[in-house]
Amino acid sequence: MIKTIASQRKFFSTNGTKSITFRIEQLRKLKRVLKENEHLLDEAIYSDFKKSSFENFTTELSLVYHDIDEAIKKLPRWSKKKRVKTNLINFSARSYIIPEPLGNILIIGAWNFPYLTSLSPVIAAMASGNTIILKPSELSSHSSKAMYKIIAENFDQNYIAVVEGGIIETTLLLEQKFDKIFFTGSVEVGKIIYKAASKHLTPITLELGGKSPAFVTDKCDLKMSVKRLIWAKFLNAGQACTAPDYVLVHQSVKKKFLELAKKEIEGSEYSIEHGNYVQIINENHTQRLINLLNGKNIYHGGQYNRLERFIEPTIVEDITFEDDLMKEEIFGPILPVIEYDKLEDIIKKVKARPKPLACYVYTNNAGIKNKILKEISFGGGAINDSNMHVTNTNIPFGGVGESGIGSYHGEFGFRSFTHYKGIVDKPTWFELNIKYSPYSLKKLKWIKRIIGQK
Ligand code: NAD
Fold first, then answer.
1. What is the pLDDT of residue 432?
2. Which pLDDT score is estimated for 398?
């Protein structure tokens, strides 16, 4: 591992990763080898937590392929030197910004979308012209192995290498010097990464989680809202960083909301018997979620199979902000429902909590929408939908406050692995001598006039 980091550093210093042709060739190759090995990726993720090839494609690989296509198409523009205006005091110079790759990158992935959280930042780092060490999550060990195999068989380790392992291996990696660390995972581990990075003053992106609320207001298309919200909550058995963690329902529509939600779950494939419902990733998380159901007022669901690591899509009602379900990110198929009366009051309660990664507002009322958008700080989100903002790479994806630092997707991803070098490029045929000594009032007057500070 240490040897690979050293050889990647050496390779980067040869400028081998910097040409646009190289970057595009490698991205093309990545898409080809992923496509060729799609069956392997499908089998691996199914072994990890019974995720179907349908969902592997719709929620992981299709987004990865899109990222590659977009980077290939747009990176010549993204990486172009950009001319900018020159200020008067630098007259005769030309000014420009040169995007340059940061260098040697460490990417640490999460297990819940093992391919997306690993490969999406890898693609952005490749597009920006860096070398990469990828450390996928050990909890999705089959997916991790599949990525290791595909990368090791097709890429020069001096350019991209996958290092498998858990805490021990990650800790060892974190002791080394990188030019950027990109981490996806929990808030708790995010703090460990931040601390380790500070030792070398390494810049970081932290893509973390948190408790993302969904507002179901009295002025919404309730049927459509429930359809979209239930899909988003129980997709991946709730193991999604952007999943609506809890619902805030206006009291006037609560009864109907619950009825429709139950009906929606019953008509879906999210059941223990059905083959398209994913498992909880491991025994610990299964037990953690079962414990959360203890003594709760379960409106729907609540059944589980500990051995099979399945938990039924479950709706819990009569929840308050003081409940233990509201203490940590649920990250599983349990939906707490909190009733509210006044929007003003419920906004205050949400604002008193850490800034969430996402927030969703189900409403047809512009006043309600704008009030929530203006008053609550959160990473990103959607109106009358949940999760789907992740698929639009024209907007940044990332957290704020405790839900993360930095963002990526599309050009935002390219930027997160790029340094923008600002240059004032001055010819020697002209010099404005007023900054040199001997100083005089006359010169000062000219300086003030030129910089607009009369
Ligand atoms: P995690 O923090 O437990 O693990 C993430 C990575 O950190 C893994 O690769 C793991 O090996 C490593 N790690 C774990 N403990 C470590 C330690 N003590 N020292 C060093 N490295 C360590 O997170 P997870 O369980 O894989 O993922 C779930 C969390 O990730 C949730 O909070 C979820 O919201 C968040 N998440 C965020 C995004 C996003 O894009 N914002 C995406 C997916 C998941």
1. 87
2. 98
Q: Where in the sequence of the chain do the CATH 3.40.309.10 domains occur? A: 213-398
pLDDT at residue 273 greater than cutoff 90: no
Where does the chain hold its CATH 3.40.605.10 domain(s)? 2-208+405-419
436 CB contacts (<8 Å, ≥6 apart)? none
CATH level 3 topology of 2-208+405-419: Aldehyde Dehydrogenase; Chain A, domain 1 (3.40.605)
131 membership: H or E segment, kind and range: strand 131-135
Q: Which two tokens stand for residue 351?
A: 């604002």
Predicted confidence band of residue 272 (pLDDT cuts 50, 70, 90): low
| DSSP string computed for 138-204 | STTHHHHHHHHHHHHHHS-TTTEEE---SHHHHHHHHHS--SEEEEES-HHHHHHHHHHHHHTT--E
434 touches ligand 1 (CB under 6 Å): no
Question: 305-347 pLDDT, tens per residue?
Answer: 999 999 999 999 999 999 999 999 999 999 999 999 999 999 9
Question: Ligand 1: which residue has its CA nearest to atom 16?
Answer: 167
Give catalytic residues, as residue numbers.
207, 241
State which CATH number among 3.40.309.10, 3.40.1110.10, 1.10.10.10, 1.20.1250.20 fits the domain covering 213-398: 3.40.309.10
Instruction: Give the containing element (helix H, strand E) for 305.
Output: strand 304-305
Distance CA 89, CA 70 (A): 40
174: CB partners within 8 A, 6+ apart: 106, 181, 192, 193, 196, 197
Read off the pLDDT of residues 102-159 as tens digits, 9 standing for 90 and up: 999 999 999 999 999 999 999 999 999 999 999 999 999 999 999 999 999 999 999 9
292: closest CA among 200, 406, 211? 211
Task: Please say whether the beta carbons of 33 and 92 come within 8 A.
Answer: no
**Are the CB atoms for 240 and 112 separated by under 8 Å?**
yes
Tell me what the pLDDT averaged over the chain comes to: 96
* Six-digit token string for 318: 């009569």
331: Cβ below 6 Å to ligand 1? yes
Residue with tokens 């703090």: 191
Task: Kindly give the number of the ligand 1 atom that is closest to the alpha carbon of 108.
Answer: 9
Q: Is residue 259 in contact with ligand 1, taking CB distance under 6 Å?
A: no
